[in-house]
Amino acid sequence: MSARKLAVALHRLLWLVFVVQAVASVFVEPPYPYWAGWLPAIAAAALGITLARTAGKRVAAAPRAALEVDPPVTGRWSALNSPADRTPSHGTHQLGQTYAIDIVEEDPARPRPSFAWLWPVVRRSEDFPAFGAPLLAVADATVVHAEDGQRDHLSRNSLPAVIYLMLVESAVRSLAGARRVTGNHLVLDLGDGTYAMYAHLKRGSLAVRTGDRVVAGQELARCGNSGNSTEPHVHFQLMDGPDLDTARGVPFTWRGLGVPGNGETFVAGWDSAYSA
Questions:
Q1: Range of the domain at 250
Q2: Which end of the chain is more exposed for a tag (fewer CB within 10 A), N or C?
Q3: Which whole-number Å values give the CA distances from 49 to 16, 54, 148, in the listed order?
């Protein structure tokens, strides 16, 4: 196990110790001073800052040219959290997310539900056009990881739900590890030290298994709303290794599209239901 992998595991363990003792202290008097209970949190925060800084330095120390691959979807979509606007696109270099992008489907016949300030608090995943959309291989590759057993939860696209996501759910998922953050996901080995990761897949939708060889354009799974997700969407990224805890992000460009910016609508492939 690498030093970074050990540091990531220690970071999660320190937060877990802090949470457990904080909950326990509600019911029993801890056998140590009050201030001592904060030491695991302080250590975890310091280690987290160190991990974030070193992740950024690792990306900067080994810059790579953008790799051109096919889009992972077809139809009309729009981009969110795009590396075309900033890097790291999701506010962190960790989990190989430096150049990650989120995209949501835009179906003129079935518009996405808008953000709600108060009501409805949540919506069903089926209310969003992206839910169940096919996800395609961006290149000829080998499947090195594939899982789809986690549930698709309700949306988090209202103010109360977003607050819950940020203050409670995200913290719990981070403690549980990368797979709980990404939800159902798959990783492809594209060769030459480059891997593609698709996150938030629909439960039970995988059409491939670990070890399968796939060709560009082949259906791999369906878009879902599992993991740390506000609504059904595709989270796509390239990275330099299959392990999310240690991988560095790799820049990409989609053939024929480039890298769509935040809010930019694009049409991938050809679909008679859409027009460019």
A1: 67-268
A2: C
A3: 17, 9, 31
